[in-house]
Amino acid sequence: MRKFTVIQLSAFDGIKNPAYVGYQGKVYDVSTIFKDGVHAGMKAGKDLSEDFAKGPHKEDIFSNFPVVGELTSEKSLFEKVFAGISLQTDLLLRLALGIVFFAHGAQKLLGWFGGYGWSGTMGYLTQTVHIAPPIAGVVILLEFFTGIALILGFLTRPAALGIAIVMLGAAVTVHLPNGFFLDKGGVEHVFVLFLVALFLLINGAGAVSIDRLIRTRYQRR
What we know:
Layout: E1 3-4, H1 6-10, E2 20-23, E3 26-29, E4 38-39, E5 42-43, H2 49-53, E6 67-71, H3 77-82, H4 89-110, H5 117-128, H6 133-152, H7 156-175, H8 188-203, H9 210-219
Parallel strand pairs: 1-6
Antiparallel strand pairs: 2-3, 3-6, 4-5
């Protein structure tokens, strides 16, 4: 019987190849129900053993699907050298962005970490940057509360969208005239933050998040 590594299994994502999933060491062909590689919020090409262990389903759910191989933890030399390995990088990126925005938002809203607080920040944004007071207030609140949301993994996509919009606005109104590099006050820093926010907007919170718990509970209904 054919043996699949996790990397090899990921190629069978149901888009250009058949849809395969791993479960308890076996690989099943689930092409009949994974349309475009997705079914009930789960993606083909992955080992679903951990996901199903948290839910009400048991191994007999796969009884109607053909076994096409075995899932092995062995890696070829090629995979060890060249393959990327996902270690919940979505969590790392989410925490990084969330901590940055919580810290800056706390400076602006509460005066923590040496910040100027609400009144000082409002004065800077309205008088120096010339942002309308309602928009300036929204920016301050967005930075603080989206930071908390990302750390918790709650409403991650709306939070990431808010951050992306704020960073785009900061780039256009403040940093773009100064060029690219950070030491000149350019867009370098906000550009990176914008791309991380865009990543989270597209991919969501990931496995370790409140969003995931809510989605899993909804799917069990």
